[in-house]
Design brief:
- The chain is mostly helical.
- The protein has helices spanning about 5-10, 20-50, 55-85, 95-115, 130-135, 145-165, 165-170, 170-175, 180-195, 200-235.
- The two termini are about 35 Å apart.
């Protein structure tokens, strides 16, 4: 989510965002090369998983993209809090942190959409577009917990959309709207823990605890900085 970037971001040099572009290009190149080199090993299994009697590839892709979306949301929230706490002055710089914040928000939303739509090919869930897109419409798999994730997606979409109309709605309204990013983060965690089939695994628990713990620490630091600033203005 785009939270409340500090004033220094607007006055930073535009060239500071160049490392972000280079990082994105290098990531795409590395992912492409790794896919090509590993293709002979995973293509036979992938084809049988997609076209077999009980295809599981759609379920695996949905689970994987869900975790990627959650990690990107967590990192976006972390960079947003770093910006509001002005910790970005130390690393990685105001403008770069803001660019990473926005890039991860958009990327996470894309992975979240992929996570939902890829389930249309899964025969166990057997969902249609209505069940995938409408909150609590799922009939075959944990409708309450899935519905919370669907609500989180739409609020996430609203938050990102509000960034592009920031000048029209004003910074104050924009800032209040983006407090909903905390709701999105909470709903996504509840959705993942309650409906995810990997919740019982060590690696999934490690991700959830690391994300939640670091988020709370950054929130605590933000509150302390805000309280300290108010006391300083009074004296």
């Amino acid at each position: 989510m785009i939270t409340n970037p500090s004033r220094e971001i607007e006055t930073s040099e535009p060239l500071a965002s160049l490392p972000v572009v280079l990082l994105g290009v290098m990531t795409i190149i590395a992912a492409t090369l790794s896919s090509v080199l590993s293709a002979p090993y995973w293509l036979p299994g992938m084809s049988s998983s997609l076209a077999g009697e009980a295809p599981k590839a759609f379920w695996y892709l949905s689970r994987g993209s869900a975790m990627v979306a959650f990690i990107l949301l967590w990192m976006s929230m972390a960079f947003g809090l770093v910006i509001t706490n002005r910790m970005a002055r130390l690393w990685p710089g105001g403008l770069i942190a803001f660019d990473l914040h926005q890039f991860m928000s958009l990327s996470g939303l894309g992975f979240g959409l992929f996570h939902a739509l890829i389930l249309l090919g899964d025969r166990f869930i057997n969902a249609d577009f209505f069940q995938v897109l409408v909150p609590f419409a799922s009939r075959n798999y944990r409708p309450i917990w899935v519905g919370l994730g669907q609500i989180a997606f739409y609020v996430w979409l609203l938050l990102i959309g509000s960034f592009y109309v920031r000048r029209q709605i004003g910074p104050r309204t924009w800032r209040w709207i983006h407090f909903a990013s905390f709701l999105v983060f909470a709903l996504v965690i509840v959705h993942g823990v309650s409906s995810g089939t990997d919740t019982h695994t060590i690696w999934a628990n490690a991700i959830y605890w690391t994300a939640g713990g670091s988020f709370l620490l950054l929130m605590f630091y933000r509150v302390m900085v805000t309280v300290g600033a108010k006391k300083a203005r009074r004296t």
